[in-house]
Amino acid sequence: MPTYRIAPSLLSADFARLGDEVRSVIDAGADWIHFDVMDNHYVPNLTFGPMVCQALRKHAVQPDGAKVPIDVHLMVQPVDALAQAFAKAGADLISFHPEASGHVDRTLQLIQGEGCQAGLVFNPATPLDVLDWVIDKVDLILIMSVNPGFGGQSFIDSALRKTEQARKRIEASGRDIRLEVDGGIKVDNIRRVADAGADTFVAGSAIFGQPDYRAVIDAMRAQLSA
Ligand code: DX5
Ligand code: ZN
């Protein structure tokens, strides 16, 4: 069985208490912190920048002090300058939408050159074809199961078929690439997403919308180990 990871999205957290929310969700069993960056240009919403990531870096730790990866999802255009700023602000993984970068190969190299893992994000209508040319420079593939910009949306089922296709590409590449799905993931559909080949799951409203984060994350893990 693959090592599954749960990555709560801060988009649905209490923005007035982000440090506490990061610590709470890690105490509740989160593996990664999913950090949704929106610029009100590439997507019609605006969230937080590198300074907030830097402020949260010291909170994204396990009780024993081990770092919890900050998984930055850039919904921004252009990409490069912000990718560099987030790398300096303590991001561990930085993913971007290929449509938002003028030079996908160069942006991937820029992120890896900053010492971060690099990911590509595929919107519901975006095919995986770019992977034909850059899968050797990708550490993470992020499949959007909602249209980017907002939390609390419904899961788009075609993301399952795209996740299966991505899993096949990863296996053919022979590389250790994470396969993350993002948007509308709940306790009652996470198993189907895992069966399609995902190993990392973003959940925002399903977790932060509930009073007991541990209960939700435990329920998700129970589905994954069923
Ligand atoms: C949407 C973001 C997602 C979103 C997930 O643009 O990329 O990460 O926050 O939120 P839920 O789990 O509520 O769909
Ligand atoms: Zn996201």
From TrEMBL:
InterPro entries, A to Z: Aldolase_TIM, Ribul_P_3_epim, Ribul_P_3_epim-like, RibuloseP-bd_barrel
Keyword Isomerase on entry: yes
Family that this chain belongs to: Belongs to the ribulose-phosphate 3-epimerase family.
One Pfam family of this chain: Ribul_P_3_epim
Pathway membership, UniProt: Carbohydrate degradation
Signal sequence bounds: none
Protein name according to UniProt: Ribulose-phosphate 3-epimerase
Cofactor(s), by name: Mn(2+); a divalent metal cation; Zn(2+); Co(2+)
Active site: 36, 182
Enzyme class: isomerase
GO molecular function: D-ribulose-phosphate 3-epimerase activity
Keyword vocabulary terms for this entry: Carbohydrate metabolism, Isomerase, Metal-binding
Residues that hold substrate according to the record: 9, 73, 149-152, 182-184, 204-205
Binding site for a divalent metal cation: 34, 36, 73, 182
Role according to the record: Catalyzes the reversible epimerization of D-ribulose 5-phosphate to D-xylulose 5-phosphate.
Domain of life: Bacteria
Cofactor note: Binds 1 divalent metal cation per subunit.
Catalytic activity: D-ribulose 5-phosphate = D-xylulose 5-phosphate
Enzyme Commission number(s) of this protein: 5.1.3.1
